[in-house]
Amino acid sequence: MIKYIKLLGLILGIVAVNVLAFSPGFIGLNFEEGAFTTALSVTLLFGSAMALLYGSYTLLLRQPVVLPVKHIETHEDYVEALSFYRRIKVLEEDITLGLSQLSRMKKKKETLLNVLHQRFDPGELSYKKFASVTLEVEKLLYLNIRSVLNRLNVFDEADYANMMKSKSSTLPQKLFQEKTKVYNDYLSYVKNALHTNEEILLKLDQLLLEISRLDSFEAGDIEQMPCMQEIDQLIKHTKLYRQ
Fold it and tell me: Can you give the pTM of this predicted structure?
């Protein structure tokens, strides 16, 4: 959808330039007032046609280039990098889930910080503790997505498809089983990382609910909140698992 919107923007831009160039009330280019004006008119039309052709090719036909994981920094970078792998049929649902998680994480973080701004002063210890754990959880979710991208980057979709199509008919049974295990490990890792992200998002929902229920409390009580303890355990467990 985005690429079609960009293409429409390109077309409207080219049309606007030509309208301004050929309208008598503006620049007033035409093919009847000498060689120079005619040459400019032809050049503009040729350039417009080339821009439209190249833009259409770039937006609709050219294969997207995967963004290297080491260059991923922003939320938009993660979305772009993960979207590239939607073409892998066996992982299409998982990629859709991962993109949904990125979107939900962004919204939940904004909601949580907004609630904290309403209930606390940014200089308060309570605000800092809640904000800190929110950012830590967000970082953990992005790290999980980064790990998924590293696995997807080396996943050979064509080899996997050929293996599943031929089954064991053209491969020795032992080799087929070993290759199947390798690819199942890839798929399992992706699914497990996304399941962990679902836990992370659930914990943020629970944290938001607990904050909304509290009337008054001391900053020292924050660590004793059930949800904060669960989040802390989840962070420690995931970091240990990733080592």
Answer: 0.69
